[in-house]
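Hi team, as promised in this morning's meeting, here are the two structures we talked about. I've kept the exact order from the run log so nobody has to guess. The first one is mostly here for context; it's the second one we should focus on when we meet again. Sequence first, then the predicted structure tokens.
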Amino acid sequence: MRPGIRERIHNFLADRGLRKTMQREAIIEAAFSTTEHYTAEELLRMSRKIDHSVSRATVYRTLPLLVECGVLKEMDFGKDYKFYDPNYLEHPHHNHLICVDCNRIVEFEDQHIELLEECISKRLGFSPASKSLRIEANCDELRKRGVCKNRKPSRD
């Protein structure tokens, strides 16, 4: 786990009068033991590998706390469920490319995109407050070869 995250979460919970429980600790450990994006159900499975007693309800109550604390970013990629991005603190300006064929999420940063967003905003008389760039794309490897090594089971 990245330095300072656990302490930040513990301080946040204490400020709200919430207890530090074994289930929450397992969820926190699972949430920040990966750089991959995940859904609440995927976080539940990862958490149960650490502590089999983690409940679905505790995961669903803890996720909004982690988002409110500012250590996790909730992402809407146009599905019936949200994704959670554990890389937000280290790379707050990254963007996402989502492969509609293999369900892979690729993070990227590009100074040219940031400059373009700034220029467009200024030209239209605005100052950017936040941004979110999501590119949905088709997998070239799947199109060319009929198979993609990155293809994961569908989350739908």
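And here is the second protein, the one for discussion:
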Amino acid sequence: MKNISKALKAEFFGTLFLVLLGSIAALESGALIYAALGFGGTLALMAYIFGGHYNPAVSIGMFVSKRINKNELITYIAAQFVGALVASFFLALMYGFGQNIAANVVSSNVPGSDFIQLFNGLLIEAVLTFVFVLNILNITKNKENASIAPLVIGFGLVILIVVGGNLTGTSVNPVRSLAPAIFQTNALSQVWVYILGPSLGGLLAGLFYNRL
């Protein structure tokens, strides 16, 4: 019980700081590379401190690859969502309720219009998340990699944000998109893209990893 309690605290605080600090970096800099470094750097730092997931898509991949059980999956995701929600509340206090707090929306750079454009955004998020989660599953499979894993994971996120940032914002994390959208309501209509896309990507990464 103590281990699961410690893990849930890690998921809560790690997700809170990931969403809070990464979003502030994106909002204050206005530059994609700084947003990427903000999220990627914070993820690496939190991984060194806590060693958690901070992302339902990662937890799904871990569950499918049999690294965690069903109860852990559910409680981890709950803790991640609460952490992201608290972070988003602080962001709303800082920047204004209903204002831009770095919630994800599909860019006009994505081909198509209306539903087709959103569906294309979903596919982009699924592919980016697949790569992200597969990288995590591979680098964390050996305990010998513990000292370098956070850097590899954080750098991987930096690359993916640079690649997809001008398309979907590169969420690759359902709670990182859902929680801010609750306070930045203009993003709510597209939040399904960022729940389904990353969740599918995490699921496929876990299935693919099992076949390696």
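Starting points for discussion:
Residues 80 and 122 are 21 Å apart (CA to CA).
DSSP finds eight helices and no strands in the chain.
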